[in-house]
Please model this.
Amino acid sequence: MPFGFPSKRDMSEMFGYVTEEDQQKWEKQREARKTSSPGTAQQLAAQSIKPALDLAKHGIRAQMHGAQNEAQRGAQAKQRVVTRETVTEQSRNIDGSDDFGPDF
Model:
C-alpha cells in the first residue's frame, strides 16, 4: 500500500470486484468443464442406460454359454411339461326332487 492507499487488487479483493486474473481463471475452468461433461441429452441418456445394457448382455452370454456346455456334454435340452387335470363333481339335489321311484 503506497502512501496508505490500497492498490487496485486490494480494492477488488475487499469489495468483490472481478479482476482480469479471476476472469482468466474462470474461463479456464469453464473450458475444462465443457470438455469433461457430455454436451447433449442423447449422450446423457446413453450413459444412464449403459449399466442396464451391460447387465442384459451378461445375462444373454451366460444363457448361451450354458446351452453350449450342455450341447458339448451331449445333454438334451430340458423340457418342462405342465399338465392340468380337472375334476368335476356333480352334487345331488337334496330337496327331494330326485326321481328314485315309488319304493323310496
